[in-house]
Structure formats: C-alpha cells, structure tokens
Amino acid sequence: MTDQHRLIVGPVITEKSSAAYQARKEYAFRVDTAATKPQIRAAIEALFKVTVTDVRTLVVRARRRTGGLSTGRAGRRSAWKKAIVTLKEGDAIAVFEG
C-alpha cells in the first residue's frame, strides 16, 4: 500500500486540468518518473476506489529558472511525469470537486 502512495505524488490542479475535468472527466496527477501505465491504473483504483478506463502519460521537461535580479536563485526545475486519467462514467474523485 505504501508503494501506491509513493507512486502518486499529488493532483495537478490548474485551469487547464480543471477544464478537462469539467468537459471530459479527466483527472491529472503528478506521478513518479519510473511509474508505468498499469502501475498508475492500479494505484488510482486502489487509492480512490474508482474504475479507470484510460491512462495517458507525459514527461514535463525541465526548465531553466531565473530569480529576477538575484543571480543566487538561478537554477533549473526538474523534469516530472504527469498522468492524465479517465474514469468510468459515474465515478468521481473528491479531491478535484472541492
């Protein structure tokens, strides 16, 4: 059970993901970079007690970060993996509805 909690890092709540939820019932999650689609499907189904019909993944690439006037804050944002999950009709995840 703890592996499933480590696999799903957290929800991605943005304007774009909220619009996808409203229109197509697609939920976006930040996941571990080594996670596979079957692992993500099993973790979402176990954690939220829903039925997953589709899983799409993408790697959000790393970006340079500047700190404005201070050069001490310049650096790099790490790459991370995002999973877009579609649920069976009638299922919902409460994290996105509140």
3D structure, described in words:
Helix content is 33%, strand content 34%. The protein has 98 residues and is an alpha+beta fold. It has one domain: Alpha-Beta Plaits, CATH 3.30.70.330. It has a four-stranded antiparallel beta sheet. A two-stranded antiparallel ribbon has the order 4-5.
Global geometry: elongated
- DSSP strand tally: 6
> What is the CATH architecture annotation?
2-Layer Sandwich
Tell me the name of the CATH homologous superfamily. RRM (RNA recognition motif) domain
Low-confidence stretches: none
Order of helices and strands: HEHEHEEEEH
Average of per-residue pLDDT values: 88
Total count of helical runs of at least 4 residues: 4
Quote the distance from N terminus to C terminus. Answer: 25 Å
Keyphrases for this structure?
98 residues, 4 helices, Alpha-Beta Plaits, 33% helix, two-stranded antiparallel ribbon
Question: Can I get a quick summary?
Answer:
The protein has 98 residues and is α+β, with helices and mostly antiparallel strands. The protein contains 4 helices and 6 strands, in the order αβαβαββββα.
